[in-house]
Amino acid sequence: MNQMLAVAIGGAFGAMGRYWVVGAVTQWFGRSFPYGTLTVNVVGSVLIGFLYTVLVQQLRLEPHGQAILMAGFTGAFTTFSTFALESLNLFQSGRVSAAILYIILSVVCCLAAVAVGMWLGKQLA
């Protein structure tokens, strides 16, 4: 299978997953803060840390499998470009403290989530 096709297949499922999670979280918590995007970024960070540890480092999954799951699925599931847009929109709407909180939470939580995912992956070894 072509690498690009592998990324596209994974990306389709990642995008659908993101759409569902953002919708569910937004319905639960409302639209006053980008909770949905923050959620998919943190969950996606745990997932990519886990997948990297298990599939790349431990199982040495072949490149097409890596492309489907890591570049495709997690790349489409996480939404850094949306994060950037929402951050800027919070700043432009005068919600400076919310923007700064969102940026700090996103960066710190996602870095921690990658570490958690890697730790979880190592526990399975």
TrEMBL record:
| Any Pfam family | CRCB
Locations listed in the record = Cell membrane
Relate the protein's function as given in its record.
Fluoride-specific ion channel. Important for reducing fluoride concentration in the cell, thus reducing its toxicity.
Report the catalytic activity: fluoride(in) = fluoride(out)
Organism, scientific name = Oceanospirillum linum
The annotated modulation of its activity is: Na(+) is not transported, but it plays an essential structural role and its presence is essential for fluoride channel function.
UniProt-listed PANTHER family: FLUORIDE EXPORT PROTEIN 1-RELATED
Q: Does the keyword Iron apply?
A: no
Quote the record's binding site residues for Na(+). Answer: 75, 78
Q: Which gene encodes it?
A: fluC
Q: Where are the transmembrane segments?
A: 33-55, 67-85, 97-120
A Gene Ontology biological process annotation?
cellular detoxification of fluoride
Q: NCBIfam families from the xrefs? A: crcB
Q: What protein name applies here?
A: Fluoride-specific ion channel FluC
One GO cellular component assignment for this chain's record is: plasma membrane
How does the UniProt record describe the way this protein sits in the membrane? Answer: Multi-pass membrane protein
Q: Please name the GO terms that the record assigns under molecular function.
A: fluoride channel activity; metal ion binding
> Does this entry carry the keyword Cell inner membrane?
yes
Keywords (alphabetical) are: Cell inner membrane, Cell membrane, Ion channel, Ion transport, Membrane, Metal-binding, Sodium, Transmembrane, Transmembrane helix, Transport
Q: Which family does it belong to?
A: Belongs to the fluoride channel Fluc/FEX (TC 1.A.43) family.
